[in-house]
């Protein structure tokens, strides 16, 4: 950034005199270069600098601290939107209006105090105008400036909300289920994804970044070993750390109700960093107002994902209205929606944030930090976590009931032999079927291996019928089929005999008894024609 000397070089003698008046110092009035040198020497005096900072009003002090927090520079478009404009005055206008004595904005106060300047700086593809603190003043400010004020986020009025979604940190269980399905190349039904409330477009890139699956979405064997050997806390820590710095996961593009056009790109990392840093400073246990959080960020750091405060170049369309959401006036529909999604999706899935809604199916109204998971925000790591010691149960009809927090390895192996058929709040239900057993056998798995694992891990009590099934299946494979068939029933044996004499060889038939024949549904029309030729009138039941 420009230094103090180059900043003062932009000002005429009148402007320098106004800065000197704010600093309460005398400067040369003979010629401008001497005045600059006098002012420069005084402005480098730490005691004078501290005195000037102490004299700032609340608005200017807030603007100053914001600049310091941002490393001494902020895009002028963003800064002026928050802290006001600087009137474009020449010397005559300054003498008439006295803007240093009667500033109309916090920005103007800093400007005429010489505490900040404006310049085009090349930090991106093209130069952008910044409001900046000269280097020497910034260096002193880091040690002597006023402490940055804490963000004021208001607690929710209702500290005992009725409609609460607790953050249970179930991602390790969900990931285990998904890894098993991917390994078996088995589709997870849409209703299961809906019950999880985790989009596959979010989770699959996450699994790739973590390294659990390759580009073809097949589990990586070595990574699976590490996954099952890790504690639950280590798994959640790794998921959190990878998500925090992931470029492949892009929450903005996953926002429901929005469509994105054009080739522009956004950086998904700054919004996560901003939000997690703010959350780290909040107390756990308190329900915090979501609207207050959004209002505070909009006031103090609205351009957290926009380079240069540019709200025109991203083509984002609202699906329901087909309207383009350009301009700062649509901040709530884009930035506000993104922050809400980060709270209600990844931070909730990771177990960090509990949610309170305005109604049973209402919008998020408040959030609360889960004390057990707050170390993720504070240090990025979990030193401990819930144990995976829940026992699965095997119900009638060979349904495996696997509770949340069951050991991941037995869960994974059961999921390879079974199909996930239902998800309840506290458990998942897997069904053992002939097609899933056949699929497991194709991958070299045997039901006996699963029984041995469950016994060794003490993961479930093994019912006798499962042992019998394993023995018969290993010897005979599939032994029975339940299917729907069409039945042609005769009232007389001679009628059946006449029909079979003409039908055998023409139709696919299966004789059940002296009066009944199983027929193929696709051949009903041909069979009816033959019966008519034989003078046999057949009645078709109403449900056929």
């Amino acid at each position: 950034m420009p230094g103090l000397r180059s900043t003062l070089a932009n000002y005429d003698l009148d402007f320098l005199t106004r800065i000197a008046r704010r600093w309460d110092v005398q400067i040369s009035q003979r010629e401008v270069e001497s005045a600059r040198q006098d002012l420069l020497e005084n402005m480098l005096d730490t005691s004078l600098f501290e005195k000037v900072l102490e004299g700032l009003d609340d608005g200017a002090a807030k603007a100053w601290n914001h600049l310091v927090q941002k490393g001494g520079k902020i895009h002028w478009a963003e800064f002026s939107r928050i802290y006001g404009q600087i009137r474009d005055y020449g010397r005559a206008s300054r003498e008439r209006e006295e803007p240093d004595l009667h500033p109309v904005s916090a920005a103007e106060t800093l400007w005429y105090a010489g505490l900040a300047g404006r310049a085009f700086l090349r930090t991106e593809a093209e130069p952008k105008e910044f409001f900046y603190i000269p280097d020497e003043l910034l260096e002193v400010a880091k040690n002597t400036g006023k402490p940055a004020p804490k963000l004021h986020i208001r607690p929710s009025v209702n500290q005992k909300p009725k409609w609460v979604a607790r953050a249970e940190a179930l991602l390790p269980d969900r990931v285990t289920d998904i890894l098993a399905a991917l390994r078996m190349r088995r589709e997870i039904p849409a209703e299961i994804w809906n019950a999880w409330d985790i989009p596959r477009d979010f989770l699959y890139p996450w699994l790739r970044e973590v390294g659990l699956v390759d580009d073809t979405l097949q589990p990586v064997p070595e990574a699976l070993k590490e996954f099952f050997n890790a504690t639950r806390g280590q798994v959640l820590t790794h998921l959190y750390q990878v998500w925090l710095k992931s470029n492949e996961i892009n929450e903005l593009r996953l926002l429901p109700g929005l469509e994105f056009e054009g080739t522009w790109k956004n950086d998904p990392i700054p919004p996560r960093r901003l939000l997690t840093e703010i959350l780290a400073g909040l107390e756990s246990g308190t329900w915090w107002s979501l609207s207050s959080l959004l209002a505070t960020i909009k006031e103090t750091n609205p351009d957290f994902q926009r380079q240069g405060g540019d709200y025109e170049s991203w083509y984002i369309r609202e699906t329901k209205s087909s309207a383009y959401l350009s301009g700062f006036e649509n901040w709530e529909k884009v930035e506000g929606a993104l922050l809400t999604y980060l709270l209600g999706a990844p931070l909730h899935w990771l177990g960090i944030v509990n949610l309170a809604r305005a109604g049973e199916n209402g919008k998020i109204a408040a959030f609360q930090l889960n004390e057990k998971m707050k170390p993720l925000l504070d240090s990025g790591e979990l030193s401990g976590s819930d144990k995976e010691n829940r026992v699965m149960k095997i119900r009638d009809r060979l349904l495996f009931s696997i509770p949340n927090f069951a050991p991941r390895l037995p869960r994974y192996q059961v999921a390879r032999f079974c199909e996930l058929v239902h998800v309840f709040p506290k458990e998942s239900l897997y069904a053992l079927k002939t097609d899933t057993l056949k699929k497991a056998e194709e991958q070299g798995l045997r039901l006996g291996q699963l029984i041995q694992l469950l016994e060794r891990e003490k993961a479930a009590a093994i019912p006798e019928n499962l042992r019998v099934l394993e023995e018969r299946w290993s010897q005979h494979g599939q032994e029975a089929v339940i299917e729907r068939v069409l039945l042609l029933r005769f009232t007389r044996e001679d009628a059946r005999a006449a029909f079979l004499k003409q039908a055998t060889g023409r139709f696919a038939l299966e004789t059940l008894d002296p009066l009944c024949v199983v027929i193929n549904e696709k051949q009903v029309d041909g069979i009816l024609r033959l019966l008519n030729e034989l003078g046999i009138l057949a009645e078709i039941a109403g449900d056929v």
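Residues 163-379 form one domain. The chain has a mean pLDDT of 92.
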